[in-house]
Amino acid sequence: MSVEMDAVLQAVDLAKRSGADDADAWLSTGRRFNVTVLNKEIEQLEEADSRVLGLRVFVGQRSALVYSSDLASDALSELAGQAIELAKLSGEDRWTSLPEEPFADGADAADLGLYDPEVFAQDPQTLIDLALRAEAAARGHDPKITNSEGANVSRQEGTIALANSHGFAGSYRSSSCSLSASAVVDDADYKKRVGRWETSDRFFGQLEDAELVGRTAARRALGQLGTRKVTTQEAPVVWSPEMARQFLDLLAYAASGELRYQGDSFLIDREGDRLGSPLLTIVDDALLPGRLGSRPFDDEGLSSQRTTLFEAGVFNSFLFDTYSARRAGRESTSNAGRSVAFQRGMTLGVSPSNLTMVAGESSPEEIIAGVRQGLYLTEMLGFGENLATGDFSRGASGFWIEDGALAYPVAEINIAGRIQDMLAGIDAVGNDLSVLDTLAAPTFRIGEMMVSGS
Amino acid sequence: MVTNTSLSSSAGGLEFFAARFGIDADACNDLLRLALEHGGDYADLFFEYTTQRMIAFENGSVRTASGGVVQGLGVRVVRGDAVGYAYTEQFDPESMRRAARTASNIAINAGDHTVRPRAVETVRTANRYPVPVFSIDESAGLTLDMLARADAAARRVGTSIHNVDIHLVEQVKRIAVATSEGRLAGDVQPLLKFRVQALSVRGSDRQRGFDGIGLRVGLDALGEDARAPESIAESAARRAILSHDAVEAPAGFLPVVLAAGDSGVWLHEAVGHGLEADFSRKRLSNYSDRVGQQVASPLCTIVDDGTHLTIQGAINVDDEGQEPQHNVLIQDGILRDYMHDWISARHYGRAPSGNGRRQDFRHAPLPRMTTTYMLPGEAQPDDVIRAVDRGIFCVSFSGGQVDISSGDYVFATDEAYLIEQGRLTAPLRTTNLIGNGPDSLMRVTMVGNDLRISDIGGTCGKSGQWAPVSLGLPTVLVDGITVGGTGQ
Fold this sequence. Notes:
The complex is a heterodimer.
Chain A: H1 3-17, E1 22-38, E2 41-59, E3 62-68, H2 73-89, H3 118-121, H4 124-140, E4 145-147, E5 151-164, E6 169-186, E7 192-201, H5 210-222, E8 233-239, H6 241-254, H7 257-262, E9 282-285, E10 306-311, E11 314-315, H8 322-328, E12 336-341, E13 345-350, E14 355-357, H9 364-369, E15 373-386, E16 391-402, E17 405-418, H10 419-424, E18 426-429, E19 434-436, E20 439-441, E21 444-452
Parallel strand pairs in A: 8-15, 14-20
Antiparallel strand pairs in A: 1-2, 1-5, 2-3, 4-6, 5-6, 6-7, 8-21, 9-10, 9-14, 10-11, 12-13, 15-16, 16-17, 17-21, 18-21, 19-20
Helix pairs in contact in A: 1-2, 4-5
Chain B: H1 9-21, H2 25-35, E1 42-58, E2 61-79, E3 82-88, H3 93-104, E4 121-122, H4 141-156, E5 161-179, E6 183-202, E7 205-215, H5 229-243, E8 251-258, H6 264-272, H7 277-281, E9 302-305, E10 326-331, E11 334-335, H8 342-348, E12 356-357, E13 366-367, E14 371-374, H9 381-386, E15 390-394, E16 397-403, E17 408-413, E18 416-420, E19 423-427, E20 432-436, H10 437-442, E21 444-447, E22 452-453, E23 458-462, E24 465-473, E25 476-484
Parallel strand pairs in B: 4-6, 8-15, 14-24
Antiparallel strand pairs in B: 1-2, 1-5, 2-3, 5-6, 6-7, 8-25, 9-10, 9-14, 10-11, 12-13, 15-18, 16-17, 17-20, 18-19, 20-25, 21-25, 22-24, 23-24
Helix pairs in contact in B: 2-3, 4-5
């Protein structure tokens, strides 16, 4: 019995002894190492172990969630007491409960390829050298590159353990590592332009080559030289894969079961409706081998699954955890996620696993070639959306397209529209699926958006 | 400005760690020696014990109650321009020593960068947010009554109010900081965040409105020294209902009047981050190497000041053990200074400015804002609106972001109105304002006499770290900012 399983089982047991009718305990432990180099020197080196345990108790139809990093028996006992106290504060909520669906059968997570012993087998100097190589490649790519924000390598490995009072107990190990680089060039008016590129994977050997990461960051910086604004106009917008991933993330949030019961999404009551172009298919899949969002069971212990959010433009399903599913009269889609957020403590809510906007047929070159005057979007800034109404507005930068080719870099502009119109207006989807972390998307084009500039 | 120094918050913070974990001056001296055993210029220890309770009150009852403790020690060693950082969640001597040793590794083979730590001595600090009793330690009955009253107040505003979601966070953060320069300081930092979101439904039109406060006060201050929960809830409900009549914001380059108070978010994005000294030290921001130059209209004097009382951006001591100050960043449009942490203060040959802050013990500090605002000018607020033929009047916002390398910023309006011929006409749907810091600041043509520091409190993100801040502004006219609407 591992230390982690011991702790969660003990926490559940103590909760029941303290008066809980039901309980679950979730423990995340791990270690991390992070190095940033700047100008060929180490700028920051950071290492730590950490852990946090979240205990959720149910007393009748009341529940509460408490968390702590202290796993000693007396601390867990105190934690259980605090949980019961807080549960007594809660209102009665007939939808709150442990899941009733069958739990994961504790299947081996090894098939999912979540853990690579090589990640922490690497000597720290190896990782430092990777960062140095990436920065050197960025700086050396062009004499105009005179600075960088640094290059960074990080690695983590850890364990998730979960137990509940319905008899579920399971755990899995996982690892991840990442490498990023940046390049800075001086532009007019004291402005600097920064290019960044990043690679991440659960497997150390799958990271992109350090020199490639550096050169890509450099090219992305150089491409921004001479950036200007454009005049306000309605125009097609081609979304680069990096920006497509952000749009994907936003759509998945609009499809969260939590927003559904809060009344806060334009997707409410729209299941089965054609809302988007037939080119649009979006899937959430927690079973993709090796991917950063994969896990054998969700943070309530339900077996991972694949859920289609949009199928050829038709909105198919929200993503649910147990609570939001019961509110909706549906079943959980195994999208329960726990996290610790600043000033919110630990929360349990809906969390996508691996999101994919399914690739299409067109090449990115064809997609750009089909635009006479429009925007190729490479960065967004700010958060100007209202998911209840679908209003969308973001600061933007990228390249202006003229007669089917990228003409010059643009920034300090804004793109706006209604998400409903944007979805219906997707008129091309690329074949260039690009993955980073838990998001995968290709280039796509929206036929018309409002571009604000001068 | 009156501060109560008779009950030093520093003493309160230090006594907590000594009594509960046996962490006293000797323990700190020991750990600092260990941290610097391989060499280095500077080291500090940051102890934290934070308790927190979060209540989500939805439609008349507690939907979620959660709470917990975050505790730990972060050890930082600085050697030249390099930082070694390690942390542990455990306060037993062996875990703390291990963290100190791990951080010390940055200085192996350091050569001649070596300093001996000075024995720590307690620093007395002001007490800008004394709270005699913390609501988190009390029974929650009064808290629940307050939440129920706020819910009822929001619903009384109109029958179209369907959902009322209230979030209450009660937090007490106890810290102790010990530095190799001999400073030992503590603090007890209460934080109360009360936020209401109301949803109004008319047919198929769903509109949200929100309002809130973030203050370093006890719960009993609400309705006395701070806005009452009922009036915050009413404001959220009114904004939701108003939004039904909101029209598309125009698109294009237009004059913008920023209402006093919450509009400080514009300043925070347009210039605040750019003046954090780490960016300038590394020559990454568009304000690098520009001290002494004109970067704003002569009407603008912009400060960052951690010495205000009870607001979210108030601190008794920063997270490097330094005292906060009234820092003039831009005077009459001329850039005077940046906000510093220990590393940048050393680089620039300045005294630390009290801006060295960290999210928690797991993070090394960075230069961060505290309370950032523009000093008041001469204009009457009504004259500022009257001066605009066609533009936007912005009252509240939902957030923003800046690219510090170019200075381009974006922030999103929440409550805003069209100005036509000097009068407020239609309410506007949420939209972005996009600009460039120095460009926008040079376009400030009127500054009102009505400086207000917002009680909303902001949560500022930088380099993966969040920090509680405050912001403020008088009524200001910027003669052109790009408005990212969809209308004409």
